[in-house]
Design brief:
Blueprint lengths: L1 E5 L10 H21 L8 H10 L1 E5 L4 E3 L7 E7 L2 E7 L2 E8 L4 E2 L13 E4 L3 E7 H10 L4 H38 L1
Antiparallel strand pairs: 1-2, 2-9, 3-8, 4-7, 4-9, 5-6, 5-8
Length: about 190
């Protein structure tokens, strides 16, 4: 995993302060647009989204890298800027695939609300670029904009419900397909 930048760093190496400042503006604009288009942040006051973009961190992961390891402490949420990630759970020594996520997908959102250990793992299927938001940053923003707290918490719960439905459907589809394949092999 590589930290690409946060608002205090530049998007790429540059030889002048002006280029560095331009890279920061580029990064903030890109991150702002990614967040603004996400279901969690869409429609929020622009100053709130700008602050999230400023406090977020860009991270890069190589194919096969773990973004999240089941059992580690949960402290941040992820929004995929590029690439694909598989979400899985280790159960009785076997990794069980729950879902595949792609550009624009948000995950780990419960870590913004509570302290717990990750109950799943996330692995990069391709090279991945993600924007991360730490719980501490999320809490600071809620302190500054308390009128957005209820809306953000409701959206986080809604994201989790939608993901649960998606993961359940994915798992049931796999069970039904495997059952159909097993029945076909008997014929």
């Amino acid at each position: 995993m590589t930290i690409l930048s946060n608002a205090k760093g530049s998007c790429m190496n540059s030889s002048t302060a002006a280029e560095s400042e331009n890279n920061n503006i580029c990064r903030l604009t890109s991150d702002f647009e990614l967040l603004r288009q996400s279901s969690l942040f869409s429609g929020l006051h622009l100053d709130v989204v700008k602050l999230f973009a400023y406090l977020s961190v860009r991270r890069a992961y190589g194919q096969g890298d773990r973004l999240i390891e089941q059992g580690d402490q949960a402290d941040r949420a992820f929004i995929l800027n590029d690439g694909a990630v598989e979400i899985s759970i280790s159960h009785k020594g076997t990794d069980v695939l729950l879902q595949r996520l792609h550009k624009g997908d948000f995950f780990g959102e419960l870590a913004l609300l509570a302290q717990f250990d990750w109950f799943f793992s996330a692995r990069a299927v391709t090279e991945v670029q993600a924007l991360t938001i730490e719980r501490k940053a999320f809490q600071k923003i809620l302190e500054k904009y308390p009128d957005h707290k209820d809306v953000l918490i409701e959206r986080i719960i809604q994201l989790r419900v939608e993901r649960l439905i998606s993961q359940t459907t994915f798992m049931l589809d796999r069970i039904v397909l495997n059952d159909a394949d097993a029945k076909a092999s008997l014929i």
